[in-house]
């Protein structure tokens, strides 16, 4: 199960309930070396930064997508909101939310599309969806920048 699915199940358990949690290492696939630093280059760009994503498409060939810095920052921001709202840190979930929201034109459309996916089980509040939509809008318009730490010299 994915992290957010386990978190949802644990959240739904009654306080006094007993449960067994078994942690199992994921099955290794033939794609285990894709996107690892120093593992080579993709057509027209490097995969060696470790941030590439292999997309397997049912209606066409597989492709490698390398997200730009704005998308990375947007996903980080969505993930931070997930952590403060649900107490889970899950980049895959944040990326799924980004992928849904990046194609939408307004928060109502975004909310309706979220409700038509497996993410509906979270029961996101309207306020949370609106905050996420703000983050997505900021990213789409280029208003989101990565905050870096720096030392001030006096």
TrEMBL record:
Q: What name has this protein been given in UniProt?
A: GIPC3
Question: Which species is this UniProt entry from?
Answer: Bugula neritina (Brown bryozoan)
Start and end residues of each GIPC GH2 domain? 50-139
**Pfam families named among the record's database cross-references:** GIPC1_GH2 (PF25082)
Q: Quote the CDD domains the UniProt record gives.
A: GH2_GIPC
User: Quick one: signal sequence residues?
Assistant: none
Q: Which residues form a coiled coil?
A: none
